Amino acid sequence: MINQHERTKRLRTSYPQSSTHLISGRNSCFKPHHEENLSRKRKRYQAQLPQTLPYDSHPLVKDDFKEYKHTFALYLDIQKNKIFEDLDKKELKGRWKSFMHKWNRGELSEGWYDPSTKRKARENAITRISQTLEDAPGVATTRRNGKNPAYESESESVDGNQSDQSFGPVLPGQEIRSKTRRLGPTIPSTQDIQVMNEIDTEARIARYNEIKLARKADRNEQKAALDELIPQSMAGTRERQLEKKKELNEKMKSFREKSPGTADIPDSDLMGDKNDFEFYKKAKQEMERKKNERELRKEAFLRIRVAEREERLREYRIKEEATIGMFKALVKD
């Protein structure tokens, strides 16, 4: 008889290809779950895309940001009322993603797909950069050396900043932010207004402290000059203590004289008079009268309630007697 080990060995040697095929097929069935989700989302997104875009434009991808940067900046300025240079990296990335999806789904107006719009946006950006550089100092020296500042600024904004001070990729809009900054007065932001208010508050506090110190120093000088003019006794003696007490009394007297004071109050207001006593008696009598009236009204109300209750009880007894009489008549019959 063939044991189990030999039977398994023969099966493996007889069907090597089929076993390998089964193993490979089994492994192919276990795909990662996230890959299936990504492929499903990709197919759904591709199904939503239109067949053709206006002006035979190609769909945008993330790498097209550098090429369509000026068109995207014009879109933000017109549609969203946003300035490209004022947006941070995170917001710029999210808005570019939204613009890219709208472009690919054909949701934008046909004018944005026109190649002339892209060309005009680029020309406007070059003109704006050249005007900014012409207004900035040092442009005459650059032109004297035979260089075009508009061309250099545009090439730097497109190719990226290649200076030794920058490392890694240049952020979108970072190379333009410093070059397209307009000169002249601008509208202050909320943060600028807050900083200005804090500076004004600190200046007022410092000014108040300076005035306070100046007044204190002036008083000390006046006191020292007064001490030099008036002969004083030795410090710590009885005479010196009496002099200090006298000075304090004079100072308090001057304060009392400067104060407006109060009007004379008659004794009748403080101690009262006969008229006040009579008024008190009348008030007490009026209070007792009102109290008696309240008690009388309360007693009348209670009497009315008692009468109503007795009336209801009498009617109930009459009805009960009539019912009992009816039952008695039925029993007799």
UniProtKB/TrEMBL annotation:
Keywords: Coiled coil. Transmembrane segments: none annotated. Residues 1-39, 133-172 are annotated as: Disordered. Residues 238-300 form a coiled coil. It comes from Erysiphe pulchra. InterPro entries: SCI-1-like (IPR044688). Residues 14-27 have a biased composition (Polar residues). This is Uncharacterized protein.
